[in-house]
Amino acid sequence: MSPENSKRAEVKQKITHELEELLVIFLYLAFFFCAITTYKMLILHEFHVSYFSYGTALINALIIAKVILIGQYAHLGRRHESKPLLVSAINKAFLFGLLVFVFHFIEEAIKRLWHGEKLVGALHGINIDDALARTLVIFGTFIPLFGCLEIRRLLGEEKFRSLLFRG
């Protein structure tokens, strides 16, 4: 195999791995966000199916999955990986929850600026209680996610998949 073909194969393998990683995280988050959307609709007695709400949940899951991948590439939470698994998973869940919180603020500010508000008004108009509640739910959702990702890191990809799918 020529060096150029080897390089292409390596790039293709990296892209495939990243897309698989994105898909797994997306599906995990999509399940939780759609469950929360259903719960919210039932609590508010909104019995009509709002596909827009589910679409928003899926888009949020995709965006947050990409934010997680960006955080992983930035080595967020790596210095606690030598600690016990639970400590490492909770630490990463907290750090990535903060990262999502920051991205949420940036997203809201950009939306408000786009609609003509000034920066101070855009930041002032963000509902902090809603943002904190979302972050708390995301933190709780991230603990098992990062627990599994930590187990996969410790066991290796093949052994982890074998345990999950082969028994």
Determine the number of helices (DSSP H or I, runs of at least 4 residues). 6
Indicate the low-confidence ranges by residue numbers.
none
Give the terminus-to-terminus CA distance.
Answer: 36 Å
The strand count comes to: 0
Helical content (DSSP H or I, runs of 4+): over 70%
Q: Give a short account of the largest sheet.
A: none
Structural topology:
Layout lengths: L2 H41 L7 H23 L11 H30 L4 H6 L3 H28 L1 H9 L2
Helix pairs in contact: 1-2, 2-3, 3-5, 5-6
Quick tags:
globular, 167 residues, 0% strand, mainly alpha, 6 helices
What does the model show?
With 167 residues, the chain is an all-alpha fold. It has two domains: 74 residues; 89 residues, no CATH class. The protein contains six helices and no strands. The radius of gyration is 19 Å and the shape is globular.
Brief description of this entry?
The protein is built from 6 helices and no strands.
